[in-house]
Amino acid sequence: MSKKASAAAWIAQETNAEPLRAKSLLMTLFGDAIAPHGGTIWLGSLIELMAPFGVSDRLVRTSVFRLTEEGWLASSRNGRRSAYSITEDALKRFGKAYRRVYAPLEPVWDGHWVLLFATHADIAPAKRTLFRKQLAWEGFGMISPGVYAHPAPDDDAVVSLLEHFGLQEQLFVVRARDLPGSGGKPLRAAVGETWALDDVLSGYLRFIERFAPLAAMVDKGAVSPQQAFVIRTLLIHAFRRVQLHDPKLPSSLLPDDWPGNDSYTLCRDIYRKVFDTAEVWLLETLRREDENVGDAAPYFYERFGGLRQREEQAVSVHTN
Q: Which residues have C-beta within 8 Å of that of residue 183, sequence separation ≥ 6?
């Protein structure tokens, strides 16, 4: 069986295995593909992009209507045509979420933890509940009532959370590490007690099982532009769903056989192989309704530590 046929069979198997949630898939498509090209797309182009996933035009219309109601998208019209744009607030949320997905693997951990806690702080219950949810989304765990911890959080995200909830004067935010020779319980013991990692583990193993067969199928030129776009979108859709439930703890705090890094490497390598071919079909589709759609913004090529890195390394090896 040829690689093209194999890729086509894999796509058919994946799209038929379980119904794709159109709204969730659209979120992936807007964040991965539309945002780097200006953030706006005509409805006709969106319907065309979603068709290979088995999503009907009616379902696309229903889903974008709901995303507009929820503030993710803004609609506009030109005659009988409708266009949808990512809102400014949604762009920030997309950027924050996708930094987790595309970011290079974390550097060596320095052993410090960030702790958030309050003493006698009067925080309204509703605000406290929302704040806890946002902390959990950022990977923080509650190691004791009112004390939240993470060994390597996004510092900017912590600052933004405190500002958003107006808690700068109510919470202590400190960096701490174990006191050598104290005989006390080490902070690393909190990992097994605080974070439920079984679901994340299962998610990564399932991701590897699904996408590992693609690694040998998608060498440059082995898939068509449309197939490359479908593979790229399904790849990020699946990886995003696992990543956003991962507290992103340093590798040194996780089991030796933790599959998170292997999943990231697999996703990165496949993405680098198909992204440029996928761009061909994406731009052909977008430019049928808007010839002024430009190439992807520079930040797009910084994903996964540099999308052009693989090609540049290959050229270097060849010339040397």
A: none
Alpha-carbon gap, residue 191 to 253, rounded angstroms:
7
| 128 and 99 within one domain | no
Q: What is the pLDDT of residues 111-144, one digit of tens each?
A: 899 999 887 667 888 888 899 888 988 899 998 8
Q: What is the CATH number of the domain that holds 171?
A: 3.30.70
Q: CB count, 10 Å around CB of 24?
A: 13
Does one domain contain both 124 and 97?
no
Q: Which of 44, 164, 147 is nearest to 92 (CA)?
A: 164
| pLDDT tens profile 4-35 | 558 888 888 888 876 778 999 999 999 999 99
Q: Is 108 within the bounds of a domain?
A: no
Give the list of residues 6+ apart from residue 202 with CB closer than 8 angstroms, or none: none
268 CB contacts (<8 Å, ≥6 apart)? 304, 305
Q: Which positions ≥6 away from 165 have C-beta within 8 Å?
A: 127, 130, 131, 134
Alpha-carbon distance 190 to 194, whole Å? 5
Amino acid at 316: S
Residues 258 and 155 in one domain: no
Are 51 and 131 contained in the same domain? no
Q: Do both 51 and 137 map to the same domain?
A: no
- Rounded CA-CA distance 160/47 in Å is 36
* Residue 35 sits in the same domain as residue 89: yes
Using CA atoms, how far apart are residues 210 and 83, in angstroms rounded to an integer?
34
Report CA torsion sign: 64, 160, 96, 283. Answer: positive
Is this structure's pTM higher than 0.85? yes
Domain, as residue range, for 61: 3-103+197-319
**C-alpha 175, offset from chain centre:** 27
